[in-house]
Design brief:
homohexamer; alpha+beta; Jelly Rolls; 2 domains; globular; Germin (chains A, B, C, D, E, F)
Chain lengths: 212, 212, 212, 212, 212, 212
């Protein structure tokens, strides 16, 4: 038995997408400017010498322009604040995303391994849905919102866009159809056939369409 | 010796305000709908029976309308997602805020005891500043962004507004001038006199203006 | 671009399945016996009066017998230590699972929102695979193991079984094909069609086979 | 509406100063001796080769002598255990402070971004106060102790001193009057004028007295 | 191969005792006054209605008088701040202890399951020691300070005393000789005989002396 | 007053050993392959370039063969997954152990400073016990499971073995008799004499037997 929650958000309605809990290191410095030139990675890049920090390290215009929704297969674009475009958010436990969706475009079902998400629709009408985890005898008492969620622009004519807060400096994202059908090396056909109850031709067809 | 960082953000430039680290309970349920009717508080309200959850628990229109900037003393308004308006975000480790600032209005210097913040200016030109913690012999090597920060609408004619993500479900806020001069009971005059190097009349005058 | 890792484990080879980070409350008591009779849920059940604890609260035979792999659609069974069968593990941050897989049976692609996993094959030959998260411009430098993983019994004649440690008292599980195709209410067809690049008939067929 | 708590502690009465939650990395080594010679900072200095550790790394006499209360503007001195004087406390999540206050001296209102604090008065009579965070519609049901706190030596003739435990290896400190009036670069006058409801001359006067 | 660190601390030398990492819930309220009358325990007592908080909830004189070192078998006394004597420190992640040791008295080898400790000798000369964990092939590269530590008053004539900060609101303590030889029910003799390489008579003798 | 819990587990009964809470860094990468060649240690080894990861980094046969129970003094062997034999489990918050015990062999009383443990007996009959922490006035209301635990093979003829999950990537272990009697440098005799109420000859004898 499964549960799903679908709801429509429009202009400036905030919607919670429940995902995995924020996973962040607990900062011991008032801040850390990510030093991407370092050869070392300890659960993320090290900190630059704080004396070299500038106001630019704390601001970005990465989200200022709409993303290109014609790239990719789903008619959507997600731009995230990162160490690269906002070095000062290293160890701050938070990112912000701009989501642009073409008419009837889709942010396909995906999950964030390291972040919860709150999305605020700024323009248009977006269908937001998230799927509950499969119930088994452990959880029969509980409805549980899942991590797999999607956003779909219900408007057939106009693009819509939204802003999300994500509770990790590096939330990660795993897009379900790509993870299952277009990984390299591919998942063995037998696994996909048994998992989705499809035959080898269907596996090949889905794969080809998602990769092609 | 002190350090401060001031920068101007305009339309859709994200700005990081470094504050205390996100403080959140680690969820053991896929989600928790805050049950505000419970007599018990264990580091926040308990969870409602998940079987009673509805899509409404995951969406809010609290941020959809501009806040009233004529209330209060500083020409600004902050509306936050909360257990009350978005019950589903209990244990999700994240909130979202809408900040409206009247022309030349101010969100006064304040800090969030339990959250980092990323602010995105959606309209207008906002001066954002944060002050570094006082240096002492422990930290002489470091410039440190502080928690005390403010937002000021540089535009003398038009309101501006912004969206913030905060990395706690209950970030808290402590507004410096109110905390120091208008607490009840008040801080002893001798403390304020010695702290700000002002005399009793100045203490009384500031108090009266902030309270009056 | 995606990455996947497939490997075969046989008798008593341990295999790490990287999943979301363990999510657990930090205990303030030497232990907590889950009190499932309580009407309250605060990030899990409350603790029983510790004076009523007995050795039984710390042991379980739930894993002692093979699970029934003929129930369900994939020829596999997963039995987990839980508050119900091992009350003493509340707040201990760990569970253990017994996985039985029929000949050519499958534990379908799934993820654990709140736990890492280490699996030890005790009998037979199991193909274990996990898929890397989709790369985007944030992560181009990194190969990342994902959370979506599966186990497949390569042996056509004999069952195999394994033991897993999971780093959460309540790891959760989200089985990809069921989450996407058999949730209730269902994900809108348009979403599945666009996500998997299949038509409505294929959506219906997959759904029916997984539900039927 | 604000709330403040003022209380007097004398010889060996412990007093809790509620501040931000302890922020510490979770150690994976039994200990870590801070290696201050390393060019890298990953949320703090790296660990020295443990084989080079000596008993000296775990003891300090930094707190053995009274601090000089005639330096600085407030007639008080705070000495903290640090990586420098107690290298072994890296990753231990705790520091200890010695606080000396001259007759009628003041530890001005300040907050610790990363630590709770328990203060124990060892000699004299100290007025300890902390201010509650400003209430807004989110918190109207709650009195909340704040982070901004101060210590004042009520004795006009004799110095007093105290010991504090702080729940972080690097608690940080932000002294309100210095953060607001003497940062470099300074907060814009307009911000201070609007925040404290004072005119430009008052801003200049306070600044000069605190800096002079 | 084992390692131990012994050092002498005298008047006001701080000494770090490395123990398990602080284990605390992350507070979502500015504070929580422990409500010991509640029937429920969720990783500690719930919070009282904050509106009922008083200054008394934040101060205690529990540490003001020397403990009675003639009670117990080791000539020492440890008094800790607790929910009972300092209700306001619930969820603050910190306690403070007063340790009194009679001439040649001992705080026997013990460990704190949930806290690091920093001890400051206020009077006398105390030998502080802690034992490194046993090395095995996993850790041959590392010297590791352990959790098992003791304090011994080297002075044969005068009592000494110290203050400790502990980085948990409920650090716990496990005194090695009592845990191994005087538990109820007792550890099986065979276990103690094999563990300490002693015979049954020695087991009985030690037990009797520690219990008698 | 002490409490202990002893119970017998046989074939495939899981038994919880409550120890300190899992202590792990919160990962910000989907995984981290321990780079043991690095000169730096920041709460554990850094991560290898993820592009160099191979399936081998996620699997180990270290647990596939019985450990040698004739080495060491107690007739038991514990083999753990480590950075060395399973590099991919760095930052995963979990290890797995294989425990082999000769007839009437003992895993002596010990504690894990950084992990909870769940043990599953795969063959034979093992007596598992853990001792409650000593009670003092803080905890009189509570029975508390302790960290000090042991495993004893009740079978006089056949070896037994078990698998444990431990909730840390580096749980650590401190074996009580070795920590107290065979550390280098040794604990002062006076401490052991007073702690265990034995005389100097008994201290010497126990030491010699455990070291010899």
């Amino acid at each position: 038995m499964m549960r799903a929650v679908n709801l429509i958000i429009h202009s400036f309605m905030a919607c919670l997408l429940s995902s995995a809990h924020a996973i962040n290191p607990e900062p011991l410095l008032d801040y850390c400017i990510a030093d991407l030139s370092s050869p070392y990675t300890f659960n993320g890049p090290p900190c630059k010498d704080p004396n070299l920090a500038t106001p630019d390290d704390f601001a970005t215009s990465a989200l200022s322009k709409p993303g290109n929704t014609s790239v990719g297969k789903f008619g959507s674009s997600v731009i995230l604040t990162t160490y690269q475009n906002l070095p000062g958010h290293r160890t701050q436990g938070l990112s912000m995303a701009r989501i642009d969706i073409a008419p009837n475009g889709l942010v396909p079902p995906h999950s964030h391994p390291r972040a919860s998400e709150v999305t605020t629709c700024l323009k248009g009408e977006i269908l937001v849905g998230f799927v509950g985890a499969s119930n088994n005898e452990l959880y029969t008492q509980q409805l549980r919102a899942g991590q797999i969620h999607f956003l779909f622009n219900l408007d057939e004519k106009r693009p819509s866009w939204a802003v999300s807060g994500l509770s990790s400096e590096n939330p990660g994202a795993q897009i379900v159809p790509l993870s299952t059908f277009t990984s390299k090396p591919p998942l063995p056909d037998v696994v996909l056939k048994k998992a989705f109850k499809i035959d080898g031709q269907e596996v090949a067809r889905i794969r080809q369409r998602l990769e092609g």
